[in-house]
Amino acid sequence: MDDTHRFSILLLEKDVMEYVNAKNKYRDYEERVATCEPKEREDLKRKKSFWYKKYITKMKYLETHYRKTNVYTEYHRGLENPVMHQPLDMPEVPMAIATVVPPISPTAHIPTAPVWNSEPIPE
């Protein structure tokens, strides 16, 4: 199989990190525009617009590029198009019976996590 059509976690991570960076920069400039001095506003709006375009472009790239991988399964299809009724050929699944757990006595021994050495690290 040609490697150009294979799914890569490394490339996905790189693409997602670029998307997150652009989104964070856009939101940062959005906040700065709301609280800036009038003389800085035009420059900040231009930068906000630049990062918004990068953010949306990367989102669109992720949506279109990773939609055509073979990672899309029947499970994903079910998430997008939930079936509200049970198919006729499927047997009905019995409901689970709840188990009653007795309350914990205030004097009962409850195990705790181990205590780690909390001494400061020498410099």
Describe this structure in words.
This protein is 52% helix and 0% strand. It is mainly α. It has a domain at 18-69. The model has no long low-confidence stretch (mean pLDDT 75).
Mean pLDDT: 75
How does the overall form come out from the CA principal axes? extended
The parts where pLDDT drops under 50 for at least 5 residues are: none
> How much helicity do the residues have?
40-55%
**H and E order:** HHH
How much beta, percentage-wise? under 5%
Count the beta strands. 0
Instruction: Report the biggest beta sheet as strand number plus sense, adding barrel if it closes.
Output: none
Number of helices: 3
Task: Give the terminus-to-terminus CA distance.
Answer: 53 Å
Structural class: mainly alpha
Report Rg.
26 Å
